[in-house]
Amino acid sequence: MNVLAVLNGELLKLRKRPAVYVCIGILLLLLLAFGYLLSWVVFTYTKQTTGPSGVPPGATYAELKKALYPLRFIQNTLSGGTTLGGVLALIIGVLSQGSEFGWGTIKTAFTQRPRRLEWLAGKLISVALTMLVMSVVLLAVAALTSFILATIDGADRTWPDAVTILKGLLAAWLIYCFWAFFGLTLATLFRQSAMAIGLGLAYALVIEALIFGLLGQFVGDPVRKVQQWFPLANANYLVQSFGQATRFGGDGAAARPYADATHAVTMLLVYCAAFVIVSAIFLQRRDVTS
Amino acid sequence: MVETRGLTKRYGGSILAVDQLNLNVFKGEVYGFLGPNGAGKTTTLRMLLGLIRPTAGAATVAGHAPGEPSGLARIGAIVETPAFYPYLSGWDNLKVIADYCRVPDGRLADALELVELTPRARHKFSTYSMGMKQRLGVAAALIKQPDLLILDEPTNGLDPQGMIDMRKLIVDLGKGERTVLVSSHLLGEVEQMCTRIGVIQKGRLVAEGTIDELRGAMTLTIRAAPAPQAQEILARLLGADAVSLRDGLFALKADPARSAEINRALVTGGVEVSELQAGQRSLEDVFIELTGSEGGL
Question: ipTM of the assembly?
Fold first, then answer.
């Protein structure tokens, strides 16, 4: 019962927090701009070129444009929206917890009725629900945009089957939950937002990609065996399991993910569980002195 | 209502914030927890609320161990400055707390009315003045209709009128069955609000009792010259321990009923007595004597 009571309060806080809307707004804006509109303008109004600065050999603008239509909106959204969306989900996760330390509201929360772990459970559920809303909004906007563009072009407006849409939604939700819980855990560890966002972004944009990118150049396949246990790689495997948004030149080995969706989902769930446990231990054991 | 036994908090190996504290706060009283800055007041209150775990000792607060949900349900608290969400209105901040505590929303309006914040209830907390923030803190502490209020330096940062209003509010809140534990480093404030006082110094409780008990017995104050001759006569009459000289005045631990006898002895001994007054030690004298500090007064 206390968890539900906390959940009500946490949802009110998230619902009324401008930063949440700013993050989701930025994500939608970038998805629309770079995932759809910019590509559509280029494919519609510019002359096709090939080579290093143009489209890959064998592909045409007409073929590439199909990624912008309803049938492939899941693939297009996931491939474009997970990294950027992940970063914004991380920021929401950090802010939801880090601000409690910054504003000292954690002492207000801990002197009410719920136990610390009940409070954490309520907060985690509220963050997870926010990520679900973010995933739904993202996919809905992408679907609507793809429908409008297909209508303008007079192209095929067939939707993917319901199972694919549902799987796409769950995949986006899982990836965003991973990032949000990662951010929340960092904020719990450092008891502040700034350090947590800095380290989270460093990991998301630099650390994993840099380490495995560099090592991969020298060591090759053994690196990918190690990489399959890391979160960013698994988020990518999951996205790739939906296939490429654009298909040309056949499904080559390079396009195939190193591990399958089951592996990716399992690993991301393990990471989420680990974050919950770490946050719980630190929140339960530490004194509140802020 | 609050009882601690050997409550101790040590940070690392060297910092002893609270040392073997034995505190007793009884039901229905307004208890002043008095001490200079850094004496260990806030650390103690945090331990009573379960925010900090003691290194040793135990406490019972509202019949439960600190931090127990059933105990917290009966406690309203402000620790240091009231902490709320700046982007939420006063009303929404209280709503979050009401949700946490599972109390009906109907109490929010009453609590806001009590602290005279109704007109600003829908404004963002970040736009509130310090006094309004403190009052919202009190409103938040009251929505549980608590049996015990724990208020840590509630007048900190308030202007003079705000301080007067807050003290009056605390006195009103302490009427009836409710217990109020209020910490402060301001003697006058504690004297005005509290029925009983505990004095903490360097983490140890150095005195506990009613204000009259702490002030001790009535005393006599005498201005007499020449002082050395007067001191000799008074010491012979009352004992050396009962006589102290400060700022040209003799403070005597003596029953005022002996005034005439003391006056006669001095005059007979050739000492001129220009002033003789019955009175009590001030709380400030007691505080300085107990803590050896005038800081924060």
Answer: 0.87
CA-to-CA distance for B154 and B167, rounded, in angstroms? Answer: 9
DSSP-derived secondary structure letter, B4: E
C-alpha span between B288 and B265 (Å, rounded): 32
Compute, in degrees rounded to 10, the torsion defined by CA atoms A11, A127, A164, A86. 140
How does pLDDT run across A129-185, given as a tens digit for each residue?
A: 999 999 999 999 999 999 999 999 998 889 999 999 999 999 999 999 999 999 999
Q: Is the CB of B69 inside 8 Å of chain A's CB atoms? A: yes
pLDDT per position as a tens digit, A36-49: 999 899 888 887 77
Neighbours of B188 (CB within 10 A): 13
Asked whether the whole model's pTM tops 0.90, one would answer no
The C-alpha atoms of residue B3 and residue B24 are separated, in whole angstroms, by 5
Which residues of chain A make contact with B79, given a CB cutoff of 8 A? 107, 111
CA of A29 to nearest chain B CA: how many angstroms apart?
Answer: 24
Tokens of A241: 């399991």
Report CA-CA distances (Å) from B58 to A139, A230, B10, B31, B54. Answer: 55, 45, 14, 20, 8
DSSP-assigned letters across all residues of B204-268: EEEEEEEHHHHH-S-EEEEEEESHHHHHHHHHHHH-GGGEEEETTEEEE-S-GGGHHHHHHHHHH
Q: Give the Cα-Cα-Cα angle B33, B39, B41 (nearest 5 degrees).
A: 40
User: Do residue A110 and residue B67 have CB atoms under 8 angstroms apart?
Assistant: yes
Residues B96, A9: C-beta atoms closer than 8 Å: yes
Asked if residues A81 and A34 have their Cβ atoms less than 8 Å apart, the reply is no
Whose structure tokens read 């800095």? Answer: A198
Q: Which residues contact A223 (CB under 8 A, 6 or more apart)?
A: A212, A215, A216
Residues of chain A with C-beta less than 8 angstroms from the C-beta of B104 = none
Is A18–B87 a contact, with Cβ atoms under 8 angstroms apart? Answer: yes
**Neighbouring C-beta atoms of residue A80, cutoff 10 Å:** 21
Query: Is the Cβ–Cβ distance between A180 and A89 less than 8 Å?
Result: yes
Contact: A13, B50; criterion CB under 8 Å = no
Q: Quick check: A107 and B79 CB within 8 A?
A: yes
Alpha carbons within 13 A on the beta-carbon side of B95: 16
